[in-house]
Amino acid sequence: MLSEVITGSEGGEGFVLIKDCVQCGGRGLLKSFIKAALLRNETVHVFEFEISQEEMYSGLTDGTSSSLVFHNGYTDPLNWISNEKPFDFSIQSIKSQIDQSKDKESEAKNVILVLDSLSWLLHHIPITDVCQLLQEPKRKESTVKRIIALMHSELHDQGIVGSVSHMANTVVTLSPIPEFTTVNWEVDPYAIGETVQRKKSGKVNREEECYTVQKDFSLIIHHDLHNRKQAIPKPDNTAQVDPAANLTFNLRLSEEERHAKERLSLPFTFSEKKKHSILQPRPGGGKIVYEPDAQDDFDEEDPDDDLDV
Amino acid sequence: MAIPVQSMTGISNARLNVEMNTTSFQKKSRSKLLSIPGTRPSFQNGQLLVSTGTTSLDYVIGGGLAVGTLLLIEEDVFDSYSHMLLKYFLAEGIVCSHSFLIASAGEHPDDILQGLPAPVLDDVPKDEIGKINQRRENDVSEESQDSMKIAWRYQNQPKVQTVLAASSRFGHYYDASKQMSAETFESAEYYPFYLPAEVHLKYSVSSNIHIGYIKLLRFIQGVIHKEGFDRACPQSKTRNILRIGIHSLGSVLWGDDICCKDDPLYAYSLTKFLYGLRGLLRTSLSVCMVTVPSHLIQNKAIMGRVTNLCDTVIGIKSFNGSEKDANDLYKDYHGLVCVKKIPYLNSLICELPDTRDLAFKLKRKQFTIERLHLPPDLSDTVSRLNKQDLAESSKLLRMGCGAAATGKKHLDF
Amino acid sequence: MFAELNGILNWSLDKFEKGQCVLLSESKTDGSFLIHHFLSFFLKAQCKVCFLGLVQSFSHYSTVGINMLQAREKGQLVFFEGLRNSLDMLLPESDASDAEPQPLSFLRWPSTDLRNLFDFVNSSLSQSENDMSRWASPVLLIDDLSVLLSLGVNPTAVLDFIHYCRMAVCSKQQGNMVTLVHNEDDLGDEDCDLVLHALTHQSSLILQVHGLNTGYCRDVHGQVLIKHCLDHDATLTHSLTHPLINKYTISHISYYLKFRNLIG
């Protein structure tokens, strides 16, 4: 389902939210969304807060593509460096920026808005404003057809993550591949993406897939995650092999070998003389001679008298 | 996995290993050290050390308290033993004729001064240790005739000594039952700071620090600058150490609310103060002992930050009034000591103690810290079940001390 | 520096990756040895270094590792001693606000951001023509970031500061940035968790120092986990455990290696 969402063939409308985690970042997936949109020759507005323009462009375009509009929120979002009129990344200004570039093209083309990442916005703008922006695709007159946003879910309270996810038409939640799936994949999967999609009709689709983002930002989906998961423990249960069969070493000793083994002196077994020289017992001292009395209750089974018998 | 690289054979390999293991970090020691009474250089890193007044505590924290560092004692519930440690620390200062500063918001500093324990000036403990050593030697010679068959290598091993003590003598012993005579402390340079006398009526807050903390910081700064404990401006007159003891910092009496609320209004007040204090100590010839009622601090994250900002952190848990008092395992001790942090000073590593499971007991004359061990079971009818209980409860307590395993998954080493 | 660590990272003095944001995280043990390692490494590699030492004094850092005094006199190193500078801010001489902006001004006016601290970093690392020819790429070292949180700085302000440093040092000047964060996972310090997680997303190389799961041990200090986050998605994870330095062998750290290639 993930690849359908990316190509836009199935429910491409509305707000797509990618929630990633510390173990697996979602920027690769985000870039494959952008790449797919660029291939469809759609206009993409990227609001970038976390990486530089070069990093964002690397692999996507040769930098000349006019359909990718880069809004730089990385270099100086808080106006610490330049002392120009402070530009605020408020919702109004985001909208007006999109409108401005649209006027230049002078054609009413629908645009895709990419927010990388929503976490930065949520840290600097009140959540109600952010949510209003995210409502934009639902308004009829809006030119923003689609919003794709990346969010680092650990960086926000559960409530905020919930409210934002509630706004989304499609939520892709990334989680790391559990360690026990040590199957020989052709290409190692990067993460598990759980796609939950809400249709206008009220129908909800849910699917879990393993995916890998390749160098050209195309996606490999490993469809058979569940089959694999179940298949793993089976070989261990079914095969009841004799453990002693086909060994590369010998388990039994011949008579000759046994003699050789017994002759071998093991490490840390020393001759009496050597033990003596190491310990250097001092001359003198006593010896305990014990002659049991008639009254002594000597138990054969417990000579040291330390068992509970 | 656990095979060290050195065990490989072959000359080329061996040489490679030598190269692989070299680092550019070299142990450096300061050649020129100030000689001040009551101090000695550390074997580890050449730092100037002073005694905490408790010999076994000195041993635990790596020989003593380095000048310019901050020791934090997490108070026990009734503040009886932690208060005692603070008194030993100050009394040691008097005996070594150091200057000292007492800051308190509850008990008046003069009262703390009056209640300092008297030093035991005859060297009885030293003789005792000597006797023990001698006796041990005799024991060995007597017993060695009885040869061990299997564990014969252990035959000549010395008996385990649980009392922690360094080989050389440093610091003094104190008699907790006697008070120091007035003549002893009259001659000492003493700077009291009593919060109620400094700040009147209502406590206020400036730049998110409680005014009490600001006052104290200013007071300490003033003493350090005026009385010449500053390291930066060397003076011709003889240098001395300033010992600073701060009692029950962070409690309600200081105007702080971290003990009352889970989400205090000024959660950073104490940490800011400690940062400033550490800055002062680092640039002067002073050492500081702070006690903090950590059991009252509701938000554990704050305590974590406080620990991170101090150099040495020792936790004290007393058995007084707790159910552990009744437990057989602890009948020999009065409480537990937990080493939470040891500083890394002028060195890549620190002197780590053998074990973090320590316990203390208070005898008539002295406070000693020992390794925690299970007492020998001498009863005639040994119940296996009972023993398991003891082991369980000891495990539980170790968890409390933070020294035991945190993960249940697997053993690494 | 530890030659072994360089070997694992595949770094050498004349060839190491530029433009990297390196995150060091410590938990239940001390990770400062890595700070010393990177400090010596970058000074020896003739980089222009700005060091925000917030935890220890200058003499401490200088005694352990490389001679910093020399580097400072040559103009190679800019050292900021947090402990020494904090007092002027905490105990101001006069109530009048100074005209000169101070790096630690947040101590006095708690609601302010870390812009002044960033300006300090930026101006110490921005290179003149003369510097360009003398020193290699700029490097920013921070020991440690959690101190800022303890001093009452809002985590968002810390993240903004890091954002700007990363932009100025890593992206603009193709330099490196090394940040230590102290975090105890069981204390529930939410601010610290937030900063650590956000940094994990932004860093390209992560070294996690962790105390042993099995509890305290005298001879083994802890383990180090190294994660390379290459470009965007491909995460190459090495895991290695290292028993740190025995009591007397100060100049030695040995690593016991356990490579685990999770994802190629």
Written account of the structure:
Chain A has 309 residues and is α/β, with parallel strands linked by helices. Chain A has a domain at 2-177: P-loop containing nucleotide triphosphate hydrolases (Rossmann fold, 3-Layer(aba) Sandwich). Helices cover 30% and strands 20% of the residues of chain A. Chain A has helices spanning 2-7, 27-39, 53-57, 91-105, 118-124, 127-134, 158-167, 225-231, 234-238, 255-263, 272-279; strands at residues 14-20, 43-48, 68-72, 111-116, 144-152, 170-175, 191-198, 204-213, 219-222. In chain A, strand 7 (191-198) and strand 8 form a beta hairpin. The relative contact order of chain A is 0.14. The model of chain A is unreliable at 230-238 (pLDDT under 50). Chain B has 413 residues and is an alpha/beta fold. Chain B has a single domain, classed as 3-Layer(aba) Sandwich (Rossmann fold), CATH 3.40.50. Helix content of chain B is 30%, strand content 18%. Chain B is built from 11 helices and 16 strands. Chain B has helices spanning 11-21, 55-60, 81-95, 109-114, 124-143, 182-186, 195-198, 211-226, 269-282, 300-309, 384-401; strands spanning 39-41, 48-50, 65-66, 70-74, 99-104, 117-120, 173-179, 190-194, 205-206, 209-210, 242-246, 286-292, 312-318, 335-341, 358-362, 367-371. A 9-stranded mixed beta sheet of chain B has the order 8-5-11-12-4-13-14-15-16, sandwiched between helices. In chain B, helix 8 (211-226) packs parallel to helix 9 (269-282) and helix 9 runs parallel beside helix 10 (300-309). The longest helix of chain B has 20 residues, at 124-143. Chain B is globular, with a radius of gyration of 24 Å. In chain B, 41% of the residues are buried. By secondary structure, chain C is an alpha/beta fold. Chain C has one domain (3-90, 100-221, 242-252): P-loop containing nucleotide triphosphate hydrolases (Rossmann fold, 3-Layer(aba) Sandwich). In chain C, 37% of the residues lie in helices and 21% in strands. Chain C is built from 10 helices and 9 strands. Chain C has helices at 3-9, 32-44, 58-64, 68-74, 82-90, 115-125, 129-134, 145-150, 155-172, 190-202, and strands spanning 21-27, 47-53, 77-81, 136-143, 176-182, 205-210, 223-229, 235-241, 256-257. Chain C has a 9-stranded mixed beta sheet, sandwiched between helices. Chain C is globular, with a radius of gyration of 18 Å. Classes of the chains: A alpha/beta (309), B alpha/beta (413), C alpha/beta (264). Chains in contact: A-B, A-C, B-C. The interface between A and B is small, with 9 and 10 residues.
